[in-house]
Amino acid sequence: MSKQTSIKEDDIIEAFRYLNAIKSIKGKHIISIPDELIDQYLKYAKKRIRLCDPKKLTWTCPNPIASSRSFKEKL
After folding, report:
1. Residues 6 or more apart from 5 whose CB is under 8 A from it?
2. DSSP readout, 19-59?
3. What's the pLDDT score for residue 7?
4. Is the pLDDT of residue 53 over 60?
């Protein structure tokens, strides 16, 4: 998981510990997500209100040539 996300292993473990979703058995970490935690998340996800549709958000660099030059100048 750490390699796939580039998040430090210790940070991932600490986040799972905070959520009570990890167990340590003989020095190995086992992810064990309680049903209550899943239920809480599902309730939260249903209530979440989005102010805009993420699919309709686009970003383009205002001036890619200028951005490229300023980046090279910093090197």
Report:
1. 12
2. TT-EEEETTEEEE---HHHHHHHHHHHHH---SS-GGG---
3. 93
4. yes
Residue with tokens 């940070």: 11
Please, what is the end-to-end C-alpha distance for the chain in angstroms? Answer: 32
Residues 69/63, Cβ–Cβ less than 8 Å: no
Task: Assign 57 a pLDDT band (cuts: 50, 70, 90).
Answer: confident
* Tens digits of residue pLDDT in 16-34: 888 888 888 888 878 888 8
Ramachandran region, residue 20 (left: φ > 0; alpha: ψ -120 to 50; beta: rest): left
The full set of domain ranges for the chain reads 1-36
